[in-house]
Amino acid sequence: MAKSATVRKQEQRERDRLAEEERLARLLSRTIKLHLFKATDAQLIRSMERLGIEEPQDLISRLICGADRLDDKALREITSV
Predict the structure, then answer these.
(1) Could you tell me if residue 52 is left (phi over 0), alpha (psi between -120 and 50 degrees) or otherwise beta?
(2) Is the CB of residue 45 less than 8 Å from the CB of residue 51?
(3) Domain spans, the chain
(4) Considering all CA atoms of the chain, what is the largest pairwise distance in Å, rounded to the nearest integer?
(5) H/E element, 58
(6) What is the pLDDT of residue 53?
(7) Alpha carbon distances (Å) from 9 to 3, 6, 14, 15
(8) Distances, alpha carbon 48 to alpha carbons 3, 10, 16, 36, in Å
């Protein structure tokens, strides 16, 4: 007996979900839980707006990559409080 369109769609969604989980498992190194103070969150939001970035993790990843390209002195300068 042939499968209904609903059953085929459910099976496709399950395959897609599994494929996404497998993709993330291959790509992700770890997950970081981050607590932000209100002022820091406001800074994050402003930076996202200035750059036209919609997802916080996208901006954070870009900042990490940018910081990794800095020499030690420049990195210390931008991270000193």
Answers:
(1) left
(2) no
(3) 5-79
(4) 70
(5) helix 56-69
(6) 97
(7) 10, 5, 9, 10
(8) 46, 36, 30, 15
φ/ψ (deg, to 5) at 77: -65, -45
The pLDDT score that the predictor gives to residue 12 is 85
Orientation angle between helical segments 56-69 and 38-51, nearest 10 degrees: 80
Q: In whole angstroms, give the CA distance from residue 22 to residue 25.
A: 5
| pLDDT at site 3 | 83
Q: What was the pLDDT predicted at 69?
A: 97
Please give the Cα distance from 18 to 22 (Å, whole number): 6
Counting as low any pLDDT under 70, the low residues of the chain are: 81
Q: Which two tokens stand for residue 56?
A: 């916080």
